[in-house]
């Protein structure tokens, strides 16, 4: 079983980190394929908590190679902090490879991210201010800096002499913000080069070698389908492709190697930032879900918006990604709630819709159609076998399977690795 894609089926924060960490146990390689340090996940193992923004969750497994792929935008400063934190916690980083094709977040990107958001006013997106959008824009505009450029200081300097005036003109004339100098950026980034050099390589031979040997590779997605630049709730999306197609492009792997696409889907729905969210809750139910589920951003600490399970969103995720199996996360967060409304579709301007509409205004103003499922009102965090779940919890899972059109193979009932019920054949 060579390649498993692990993709978020909602708006991110579905708990992919824990699932990738579990899959990494039997994997030879984990590749992070897109996004930047806008993403964040926490893995709890043996009572210890590890936080990641860029480094693949597989790093906690000493024999697993971990690749930061070509589709990622990487902030070298953030990465170094993360590496140092992991080293201090005793993690072994010898198996980390950073693609020289990955793009870098430059010091002006977070500044522009914030200024552009402020300029949008009421229409702001709610970005993480990490400079991810501006970095991807520059990549597409072919004025981006790649990680491999760090090893070529003269090339870096020449390119900065061309790019920086473009950036400074915008900073100064449009926003009245202070400019950047070639010298300062060069000094800062050559400092990073010295510290990151041992990890920077072209992972192409490594990845292709693993494929040729039939080794097991896990593609770790960041964010989720509804934040995909093409498939999500544009413009309230991130600037990369968190869908299964993006995972392949971002890792340099062709579709014929994929044996399984695992969709990670939370038992309810959350989103951070602005944009349509049909099943969003307010008031006591929202507070309960947010506090019980610890729904605060790993990267920014922002409280997440929370809502009932939206089967129209999850079904869309299953379909556009070709999901074979689902890891359903945070089921225990629903322990005290009864009944449990589940959205099965929407009504917009008198018309029924079974999947999220492309028209963002229709999606924003649509009316969710709910079906009420019974809650189980008993703690399930200690359950390890599917049959031992309360009947109503099994009923909830099985109804979700019907609604979204894929089997649930993993059920997560708590943050620890151990708190996972594997149903049927493990992946
Ligand atoms: P950006 O990726 O920082 O440009 O933010 C664009 C949108 O994507 C905002 O709504 C962010 O809150 C959202 N976003 C980016 N990364 C994540 C993530 O890892 N989880 C959830 N939302 C995210």
CATH architectural category of the largest domain: Alpha-Beta Complex
What number of domains? 2
Which regions have little confidence, pLDDT < 50, spanning 5+ residues?
Answer: none
Number of strands: 20
Which kinds of small molecule does this entry bind, naming each only once?
A: inosinic acid
- Distance between the first and last residues' Cα: 9 Å
CATH class of the largest domain: Alpha Beta
Q: Quick one: CATH superfamily of the largest domain?
A: Adenylosuccinate Synthetase, subunit A, domain 3
Describe the largest sheet.
Answer: 10 strands, mixed
Gyration radius over CA: 22 Å
Mean of residue pLDDT values: 95
Percent of residues in helices comes to 25-40%
Give the class from helix and strand content and strand pairing: alpha/beta
Reported by name, the CATH topology of the largest domain is Adenylosuccinate Synthetase, Chain A, domain 3
Describe, in plain words, how this protein is organized in 3D:
This protein is an alpha/beta fold and about 425 residues long. It folds into two domains: about 300 residues, Adenylosuccinate Synthetase, subunit A, domain 3 (Adenylosuccinate Synthetase, Chain A, domain 3), CATH 3.90.170; about 100 residues, Adenylosuccinate Synthetase, subunit A, domain 2, CATH 1.10.300. It contains twelve helices and 20 strands. The strands form five sheets. It has a ten-stranded mixed sheet, with helices on both faces. Strands 14, 16, 17 and 18 form a four-stranded mixed sheet that branches. A two-stranded antiparallel ribbon has the order 3-4. A hairpin with a 2-residue loop joins strand 3 and strand 4. The protein is globular. The termini are close together. The model has no long low-confidence stretch (mean pLDDT about 95). Bound molecules: inosinic acid. Inosinic acid binds next to helix 4.
């Amino acid at each position: 079983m060579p390649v498993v894609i692990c993709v978020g089926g909602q708006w991110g924060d579905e708990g992919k980190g824990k699932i990738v960490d579990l899959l990494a146990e039997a994997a030879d390689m984990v590749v992070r394929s897109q996004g930047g340090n806008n993403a964040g996940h926490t893995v709890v193992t043996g009572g210890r908590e590890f936080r990641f923004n860029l480094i693949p969750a597989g790093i906690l497994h000493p024999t697993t190679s971990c690749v930061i792929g070509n589709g990622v935008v990487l902030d070298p400063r953030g990465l170094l902090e993360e590496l140092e934190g992991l080293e201090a916690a005793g993690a072994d980083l010898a198996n980390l490879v950073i693609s020289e094709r990955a793009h870098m977040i430059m010091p002006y990107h977070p500044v522009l991210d914030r200024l552009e958001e402020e300029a949008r006013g009421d229409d702001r997106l709610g970005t993480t201010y990490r400079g991810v959008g501006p970095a991807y824009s520059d990549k597409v505009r072919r004025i981006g800096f790649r990680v491999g450029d760090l090893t070529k200081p003269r090339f870096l300097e020449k390119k900065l002499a061309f790019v920086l005036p473009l950036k400074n003109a915008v900073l100064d004339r449009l926003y009245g913000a202070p400019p950047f100098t070639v010298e300062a950026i060069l000094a800062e980034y050559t400092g990073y080069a010295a510290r990151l050099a041992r990890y920077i390589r072209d992972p192409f031979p490594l990845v292709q070698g693993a494929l040729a040997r039939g080794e097991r590779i896990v593609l770790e997605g960041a964010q989720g389908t509804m934040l995909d630049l093409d498939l999500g709730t544009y413009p309230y999306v991130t600037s990369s492709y968190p869908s299964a197609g993006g995972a392949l492009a971002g890792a340099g792997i062709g579709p014929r190697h994929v044996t399984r696409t695992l969709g990670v889907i939370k038992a309810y729905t959350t989103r951070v930032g602005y944009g349509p969210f049909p099943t969003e809750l307010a008031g006591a139910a929202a507070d309960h879900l947010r506090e019980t589920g610890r729904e605060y951003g790993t990267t920014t600490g922002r409280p997440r918006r929370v809502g009932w399970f939206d089967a129209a969103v999850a079904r869309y995720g299953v379909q556009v990604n070709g999901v074979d199996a689902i890891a359903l996360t945070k089921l225990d967060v629903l322990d005290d709630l009864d009944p449990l409304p589940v959205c099965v579709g929407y009504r917009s301007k008198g018309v029924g819709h079974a999947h999220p509409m492309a028209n963002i205004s229709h999606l924003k103003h649509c009316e969710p159609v709910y079906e009420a499922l019974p809650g189980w009102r008993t703690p399930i965090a200690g359950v390890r076998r599917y049959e031992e779940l309360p009947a109503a919890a099994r009923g909830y899972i099985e109804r979700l399977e019907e609604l979204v059109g894929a089997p649930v193979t993993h059920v997560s009932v708590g943050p620890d690795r151990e708190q996972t019920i594997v149903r049927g054949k493990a992946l």
